[in-house]
Design brief:
Shape: globular
CATH architecture: Sandwich
Largest sheet: 6 strands, antiparallel
CATH class: Mainly Beta
Low-confidence stretches: none
Strand content: 35-45%
Structural class: mainly beta
Order of helices and strands: HEEEEEEEEEEEE
CATH topology: Jelly Rolls
Number of strands: 12
Length: about 180
Amino acid sequence: MDINKFRPKNSTYLPIDYGFKAWAFDPSSAPNSYTPTSGASFAIRLKIDKPELITGVKIICSGTPTLLTGAYFALYQDNTKLIQSSDRTSDFSTIGGKTLPFTAPVSVQKGYIDVLVWFTATTTCPNVARGSALSGLGDFLTGTDKRYALTDTGLTTTAPSTLGTKTSLGAAVWLAVY
């Protein structure tokens, strides 16, 4: 007897359903906003199930910035920078989903990647979509394993070659790679 015919069909959306390679979590679970500090980066750790070719980052802007001067993303694996985006400031003049390609596709291996995000602004950075904001959100994973982390400060236009020390971000920011 085939027991699989009695199992319910999985109705959970997965990254592949949206055309993504990986995501932090289902974007329908991101009803809140996080406002980053200018020059301070945050890193979102994503699980990669098989070798992939990553073309860029998807993020949701839920509030427009005031006098934004820079918007950057970088991709890391094993704490080594693989690629950095060009300045994407012009993409953040409106709210909504953002498709932010890297300058070239990059290959990643099965395991984990970190997407580093930072903005520079004279006044206010853009709000980005997030899920929960709990002080204990990062308590179960430590060191380089943190899924939602603050990393480097004082960034302008260039990502560091390796990630700085990860401290708990306290907010589950949504993003995906495609």
